[in-house]
Structure formats: structure tokens, C-alpha cells
């Protein structure tokens, strides 16, 4: 099926069918997360059963399940550790403006140390600062229920959904290591070349190093075939 132009700018490699599956998966995932979490009464009636950052987590977990930012530990650890950073900032810094900034900065630090960088974690940290009175009263408990509970439920549902739709989650390399080595050798790439290129770019990319390795090697093989056939 030819890729619809509507989806072409969104993400490299994005196709219509996987995107439609992501829509269905996220809708079901969020709905069932609420159903599951509703079985566990919260410590404060003023706190929502599901927190807004989990909606952003669902986008990552269902739409880009191969992203390092969307892996189960990134979702659970990122949201929980970020919320802890937010609660800490709210307790230590009386000024809400300063506390909000410190919460998000602290969340990035916590996620970096925990190797679970997850963008919605910034929103979770901010929620702990600007949230309702009930959230403030719950303190660190808020990081585990509902935030942690929401995250675990969502990840579990995402794992089940991707399994029945034929995707790997947690993400596994798209080819066995031996095959990757063979493709890399045929293309003339070395892992050191990729590491040096990444260092030269001074940027972070939302793709696992192993997937990038195979992608570049495969692209080089196609280029070699094109040159051998005398095309362009």
C-alpha cells in the first residue's frame, strides 16, 4: 500500500495501517487504564483517577513503540521519578513559578540518572506543582497512585496490544544480531563510524543505536546496488 501523503511528514517510516492501529490502541489503552485504576481507591477524593501526562505516554507507547522514550521502563520510571521531583520542588520552594521550573529541570535530571527519559515526565512533575490541593496533600504518594499505577496499567495494556498486532514491545532490534553484523559488514560500516558520526552531530536522536546501525547499513547496501546498476 502506497503511503498516504497525509502521514508522510509525521515520522520517518510511518505508514497508514500502523498509524490507524496506534489510534485504536491508544483509545483502548486509555479507556482500560481508567477501568483498571478505578478498582484501586485513591487516598484523596480530589485527585483524578488518571493523570493527564498518561495521555502523552499513550501516544508514545502506541504510536512509536520502537522509540527509546516509549519503552516500559521509560514510561513507568520516567513518570514516577519525575513526579517525585515535582513533589520535592513543591515542598522546598514556596514560589510556584520557581517551583515549576525546578520541577521540570529536576525531572530531567532524575530521568537521566535513572536512564528512563520520557517527555510526559515533565508534565507529571509540573502537575505535582500546579495540581489541586488534594495532589499537594498526597505528597509522594501521588507519584505511586495514581501516577505509577496509571503508568503500569498503560504499559501492560500496550504490551498486550502490540503482541496481538505483531509488534515488539518492549522493542527488540528489527533483525537478529548476526544478521545485523552481516549487513553492516556488507555495507562496510563499523559501529565506531556510527558513534563518531553521532558525536559529530552533537544532537540526540529518537532512535535506538541498534536500529540506527541497521538502518544506515541497509541504506548503504541499497546505494551500492543502485550504483552497480548504473542508476543515478
Automatic annotation (TrEMBL):
Transmembrane annotation, as ranges: 20-41, 47-64, 76-93, 99-117, 138-161
InterPro entries: HPP, TM_HPP
UniProt xrefs under Pfam families: TM_HPP
Keyword Membrane: yes
Record keywords, A-Z: Membrane, Transmembrane, Transmembrane helix
All residue ranges annotated as the HPP transmembrane region domain in the record: 18-170
Keyword Transmembrane part of the UniProt annotation: yes
Coiled-coil stretches: none
Protein name, UniProt field: HPP family protein
Amino acid at each position: 500500500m502506497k503511503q498516504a501523503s497525509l502521514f508522510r511528514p509525521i515520522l520517518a517510516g510511518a505508514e497508514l495501517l500502523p498509524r490507524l492501529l496506534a489510534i485504536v490502541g491508544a483509545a483502548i489503552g486509555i479507556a482500560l487504564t481508567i477501568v483498571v485504576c478505578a478498582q484501586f481507591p485513591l487516598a484523596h477524593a480530589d485527585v483524578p483517577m488518571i493523570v493527564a501526562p498518561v495521555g502523552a505516554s499513550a501516544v508514545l507507547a502506541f504510536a512509536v513503540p520502537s522509540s527509546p522514550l516509549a519503552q516500559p521502563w521509560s514510561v513507568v520510571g520516567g513518570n514516577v521519578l519525575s513526579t517525585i521531583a515535582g513533589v520535592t520542588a513543591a515542598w522546598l520552594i514556596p514560589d510556584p513559578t520557581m517551583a515549576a521550573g525546578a520541577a521540570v529541570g529536576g525531572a530531567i535530571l532524575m530521568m537521566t540518572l535513572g536512564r528512563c527519559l520520557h517527555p510526559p515526565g515533565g508534565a507529571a512533575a509540573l502537575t505535582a506543582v500546579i495540581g489541586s490541593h488534594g495532589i499537594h496533600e498526597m505528597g509522594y504518594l501521588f507519584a505511586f497512585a495514581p501516577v505509577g499505577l496509571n503508568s503500569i496499567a498503560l504499559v501492560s495494556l500496550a504490551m498486550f496490544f502490540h503482541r496481538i498486532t505483531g509488534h515488539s514491545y518492549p522493542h527488540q532490534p528489527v533483525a537478529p544480531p548476526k544478521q545485523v553484523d552481516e549487513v553492516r559488514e556488507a555495507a562496510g560500516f563499523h559501529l565506531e563510524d556510527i558513534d563518531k558520526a553521532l558525536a559529530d552531530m552533537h544532537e540526540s536522536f529518537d532512535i535506538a543505536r541498534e536500529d540506527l546501525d541497521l538502518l544506515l547499513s541497509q541504506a548503504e547496501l541499497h546505494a551500492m546496488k543502485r550504483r552497480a546498476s548504473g542508476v543515478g
